[in-house]
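TL;DR need structure tokens for one chain.
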Amino acid sequence: MDEFEQFLKAKQMEAKLSNKVTVDMQMIVDHFIERVSTLFIFIEDILEPFIADKTIVIERRQRHIIEEDYGEYDVQELIIDVSGDKVHLTPVGANIIGAVGRIDMRGPQKSAVMLLTREAGPQINTYISPHEAPQPEAITLERLTAMEWQFLERVPRSHYLEFSPDSFKQMLMRVING
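>> reply
TL;DR here they are.
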């Protein structure tokens, strides 16, 4: 066996021992872009009566994101103008600890964080053991589809508020008025 073959065998053994899960990065990015788009359409539906009477003006902009593991991609940003007070819903990325997407909601007075995560909130497991760590769950389209948008609130301890038309309107008022 030559040096290159030994190298390949060593890498193969290393991968088996490290419990690596193969992740389809492009599937995650495509899903994030789709979920952001669907969320923005839902928000526009929530605000439709106010958009129709021009109390609220909606604008979309293209945002370029560069993520270390996921590469470069474009996604929409939503700007909500409420009588001159602008609220930006800015996608941050899909590579988020405990979630598969994040949007920052920035208003003139405050900001909020929206995470695309499992219904019960993020699940983060840490293993410190001389023994082999359990195999992490593979990220599948089925698991991604089960994720939901939630507001992260940090008062006094972080908790998650389910995204709904009412919670969105409350958060919109909070980021505008403080």
